[in-house]
Amino acid sequence: MSYFNYSRRKSSEVEIGDTPLGGDNPIRIQSMANVSTMDTEAAIEQCIRIIKAGAAYVRFTAQGVREAENLALIKEGIRTRGYNTPLVADIHFNPKAAEVAAQYVEKVRVNPGNFVDKVKTFAQLEYTEEEYAAEINKIRERFIPLIDICKAHHTALRIGVNHGSLSDRIMSRYGDTPEGMVESCLEFLRVCVEQNFFNVAISIKASNTVVMVKTVRLLVQRMDQEGMHFPLHLGVTEAGDGEDGRIKSAVGIGTLLSEGIGDTIRVSLSEDPEAEVPVAKKLVDYIEQRKGHEPIECIVADEFVASDYIRRASCEVLNIGGHHLPVVISDRSHGNFEFTYDLMPDYIYIGSEDPDNLPDTFQLLVDAHAWKPGKTNAYPVFIPSDMEILSQYDSAIKFVRMQLCDLTDARIEQLKSEANVVVLLGSSHANAVGEIRAFMHKLMRAQCKVPVIICRTYRDEQLEDLQVKAAADMGALLLDGFADGIMISNQACEQKAVD
Question: I need a surface site. Which of 44, 190, 414, 453 has the fewest CB within 10 A?
């Protein structure tokens, strides 16, 4: 895996019916039924709708033994109608239900937070090392029978950790932390390895995308240290619906996919489950366009730790950089200055438009050749070849458009010496996220603290396509701590909708 160059993490292959996961297989898309598992006909019909939408796996909740047993009827009904898509049983609190379901479906998901440990009471518990070891042994005693059933029936397992359901035991030792989530997962994985059972996938989810990304990155590091290569299922819990659900999911899932992490994904929307599948497919297709791209050469800055969110230190230029929240710049260089005034951007880029034609209440970015001295609400935008004349312009902010290829050592030194310059950073590379990361790491290694606005241009007619792509790109860079602001342009739909 490379931080700057896209390539899939090499994971082990898991047999799930006739649709294997991980290894050299495609990134699989899945969804979860939301009808009662006891309503056999409704479950069959919804499952078929999910399959037709393009899901590789369909998951059903099985709260108890009755639901687990009814999965056999659901499976039979689906197979009778000509569909071989593997089914997954989702188990909480009930090891017996897992053992029953494992005899019928192709994969069973268990939650380490409530599979063995007592129901969560939020009690602060104290354990001696011997007592803690005894609790781990309880996991072995209760978990190994399920592993044996899975071996006998060629059933896969998913160890699925949720941020909101860590056990009191884990919480008492690690707190409500990514480290606790990772250890909760590893406790079960170590038993699988000990039992020579590798037909296992993992998910480690949270509704907070910062926590979710950090935890998955940390889990991958820990698995590498322990020689584990299990495939990963990615998802953001309780993402919601509409554009919020799509953007939130794309931020978390897209960030990890862009780093080559992830073998199957679910976009969890509070909508009909079949609506999740096209969104997930768009996200996977967008990330995979980076395959085989021109290599990006760069060295990671010493102070950067991928598993931690630390915002890059930058200089303060008016309200950009420093301690300020990232700003939003709206690209209106093609005209149309109508705005939703409760969602006004911080700045507006107007290209070569005459700034005198717009209200003084707008903060404007103007191409340098059209900029007018003395216009206090308008700031010039330069191209790299004009950087030598920056000092000739008297403006509170001077913006410079740049890409990685523009960042010479001489220009880095100029950016370090100028007190009021802000970079508008773009990329036309097939892996724009990787190239923008390389630019930022080059600045960090040179101790250059110029503020940076991340700029991305898209050409999508469908707003959902734009939401997925922009959220995946900007999410990855914001979660790396790199953006002092963002500017998103789209050449195929109304800019007002983009903002």
Answer: 190
